[in-house]
Please model this.
Amino acid sequence: QYIPVGDDVVLGQSGLSADAGADLTFNRAGAVSFALGERLQRTNEAPPERGEEPYNRLVNRLGATLGVHPGGRVFQHFLSYDWNVNLHDEFPDINKQEHDFTLTNYWRFLPKTAAVLNADFQLIQYAQQQRAGDQFTNVNSTPLRVTGGLSGLITNRLSLRLLGGWGWGFYPGAPADDFSSFVLDTQAAFMFGSLAEKNKLFLGYERNFQDSTIANFSSYHRPYAGYEQGFMSRRLRLNIRGEAMIRDYVAEATGAFQNSSGETITIDSVSDLLIGVNVGLDFNIYKLWSVGASYHFKSKFTDVEYDVTGGPDVVREYMRNLISVSTTVRY
Model:
């Protein structure tokens, strides 16, 4: 990882990552189903600024889903609740919990194509409002997103997901510090070669908003494209994906941000450009055993930095290269 600030670099680090989960579904094939899910993750990653300690966070997600599937499953309805808890080792000031309520409805008017109507409501609550060591304030919110559209196959080789609607942030303060705008999630995919290999080219675009630790929220545009192809009767699989994200911030308070010219700017003037490329290769040695390797490149172009009391300045620009190797045993 490279940070363009003199000789400052991220020093040698190590740590433990873990991901454990379980799902239990009752009456999956019946007219009414009920599912429970639990997932616990501990992350360990290099910080996006200079320092000697990695970022460690504990994320727990506990949820339940009620499904209603009338005869033939032409219509399906799912009501979900998820309780998400985010705990940070290095930054306990931004610990938070989220209560997420989701209603999803499907009308399958063709064998593999459906009309979709979604509503997602969240309660985002931080453990504390004021944060020590910097100029930011945690802001609770109750965002709502309502979307609808189509998802599924147009032909046996062309699929389309087109979901659009409106989102509201319901952040406190002036309307200028809140989000109320359209949201969009669209992807087109073309299956090529043998359908059994599940080869595809895909192109997509997403417009949405998300909670932010340095502002009320950030809104973003995210175009992406990818390629997936299987070889040797799907024993060997290649995945390539690239994306860009343009992210803008909105907050009621102003902060002590500076650009490379030393000019002080407000949070509303901060914009991130992130570029990412992922390349992965997986090989099934036997039916129960597979190995894989991947390369992840990510670069953030952000011409701002800010001060942290009692700590180093935080520079938001970085370039990250990550190489992963893995082995998986299935039972």
